[in-house]
Design goal:
Elements lengths: L11 H13 L48 H10 L17 H10 L13 H12 L35 H11 L24 H12 L5
Helix pairs in contact: 4-6, 5-6
């Protein structure tokens, strides 16, 4: 036996790989490549994320054509008028034509609610804990960069002064600097969650997705 060779215990490498994967990958219930935190149809695969009426629910799980949060005969009446047309809202499978396939989707969802889709993250409930954990103490009291976004919601709306964030505010700029590896400062992060998996100071994929979803939603408190 070569005493300089690494000891390999059967099953341990697989277990460690599994644990690492679960650490860096966000939850994707429907397996469409879009994390649940930002998926507008979290239980039905829709990699395209098309949401033609802009109500937060992707077409694939939104047969609620009048937006009253229930799929019923009122929606069926609207759908009937759009049959064999290219009406975007009634084209649930996004193939460019409203037909029996879309009718089947509506039938499956009848008397149900649209969605479920991702609920937009908030500063208080979702993002502030991330900033507090990853950006302390620089932005949780020291005010480096003229903001304490880890403790003060209003600071998210201060204008960003980073050259890569022209026209953005501090909140919007966070994800730019996180993904570039600049933040958290001095943590040795690359900005790529897969590469940073062994560094607890860096944001995971799920945390980056949460910050991005918060920004996309308009930085809700």
């Amino acid at each position: 036996m070569n005493m300089n060779s690494p000891l390999v215990v059967p099953g341990v490498a697989i277990l460690l790989a599994s644990l690492t994967a679960h650490t860096v990958l966000a939850l994707d219930t429907d397996g469409d490549g879009v994390d649940d935190a930002v998926d507008n149809c979290s239980l039905v695969a829709n990699a395209d994320q098309v949401d033609s009426d802009g109500d937060g629910f992707g077409n694939r799980c939104d047969a609620d054509l009048n937006n009253d949060l229930i799929v019923n005969v009122l929606d069926l009446g609207i759908f009937k008028q759009a049959f064999f047309s290219s009406d975007a809202d009634s084209d649930f499978n996004v193939d460019g034509i409203v037909n029996v396939i879309d009718l089947g989707i509506m039938k499956a969802d009848f008397f149900g609610a649209p969605g479920p889709g991702a609920v937009a993250p908030t500063y208080t409930g979702d993002v502030q804990p991330i900033f507090a954990a990853k950006c302390a103490p620089c932005h949780t009291g020291l005010g480096l960069g003229d903001h304490d976004i880890g403790t003060t919601y209003g600071d998210a709306f201060l204008p960003a002064d980073d050259s890569d964030c022209d026209g953005l505010n501090k909140g919007q700029c966070t994800i730019v600097r996180i993904r570039s590896g600049e933040m958290p400062s001095g943590a040795g992060c690359t900005g790529d969650p897969a590469q940073d998996a062994g560094n607890a100071a860096c944001l995971t994929q799920a945390e980056q997705d949460t910050v991005q979803a918060w920004i996309d939603a308009g930085l809700p408190e």
